[in-house]
Every structure is written in C-alpha cells, then in structure tokens.
Design goal:
Elements lengths: L2 H21 L4 H27 L4 H23 L7 H31 L3 H18 L1 H5 L4 H4 L11
Helix pairs in contact: 1-2, 1-4, 1-5, 2-3, 2-5, 3-4
C-alpha cells in the first residue's frame, strides 16, 4: 500500500466515526475513545514521518498542516473534556469535524498527488513505517500523545532546519 493510500484510509475511518457520533449511533464514549485514538495516532505519523518527507515539496502547505494539527489537538481535548449532556457538546464535535474536513481536503487534493510523485518507489516502505508507528501509538493511548508526554505532537513546529535562531 502506498503512503497516501494509508493516510486516506485513516481519513475515511475518522469521517465514519464522526458520522456515527453526530447521528448518535453506537456508544458515544466508545466512539469518542476511538476518534481520539485514531486522530492522535494519525497526527503522530504525519508529523513524524510524512510531513518531514514533504517539507521541501510543499513547504507552505506542510507548515499550515502542522498548525492545523495544533488547532485540531486543542479542539479534540475540548471535546474529550466536555460533558456530553452539555448543550455545547455537539457544537464542539461539529467544530472539530469541520477542522478535520478542511485539513483532509487540502491534503488529499493538493499534497497527496505531489507526495506520490516524490516518494516514487519509497512510498510502500514509508507506508509500512507509518503503519507500525500508528499501531504503536494506538497501543500507547491518546492521553499520552495529546497530553504533556506526547512529544511527537506536543509542539507543531516543523522539522529542525526551519528554525531561525
């Protein structure tokens, strides 16, 4: 499987969880856990493996993606802390979904086609690395990733060579 195909599969999975949550299908707590776990692990593999590989290809979009992750992480934490009986709960879910939807459209339409051109033969190998890291992150749990301990997504700063002293 190509790297972008793996990411797209994860996007689709997250969209399906949002749909279930918004329609009130299934156990809300279990769905929220699944959403948080999937999003956290997805952000980790993009920021650790995929974005660094793309930074020179589409720097503006990659830097924007890091920022969107920071905002999404904040919105996700608000959803997780919210009381589901609260009137604002649905608004928090909708806001998070809209953020993710925008992010997904940009990645899939703009970044992914360029990514595959650049990755070429290396795409499958990168996908395997991403899958391994995704599974390991899921096992670790989203608290670790979203909280203070999750260095991979704690800061949305881009890879090293872009820091100005």
């Amino acid at each position: 499987m190509k790297a972008t195909a793996l990411l797209k599969q994860q996007h689709d999975e997250v969209k399906a969880i949002f749909k279930s949550l918004e329609h009130g299908n299934g156990n809300a707590q279990a769905l929220l856990d699944k959403l948080a776990t999937s999003l956290a692990a997805h952000m980790v593999i993009e920021q650790t493996l995929f974005y660094p590989a793309m930074i020179d290809v589409k720097e503006d979009l990659v830097l924007e993606s890091y920022e969107e992750h920071a905002v999404a992480r904040f919105a996700l934490k608000r959803v997780l802390k919210a009381d589901r009986g609260d009137a604002s709960f649905k608004a928090k879910i909708t806001t998070l979904r809209e953020l993710i939807d925008h992010h997904v459209v940009e990645e899939e339409q703009d970044l992914f086609p360029k990514a595959e051109k650049v990755l070429g033969e290396g795409s499958e190998a990168l996908a395997m690395q991403m899958k391994e890291l995704f599974d390991a992150t899921v096992e670790q749990g989203y608290d670790e990733v979203l909280g203070k301990g999750g260095s991979a997504v704690k800061s949305a700063s881009a890879p090293g060579h872009h820091h100005h002293a």
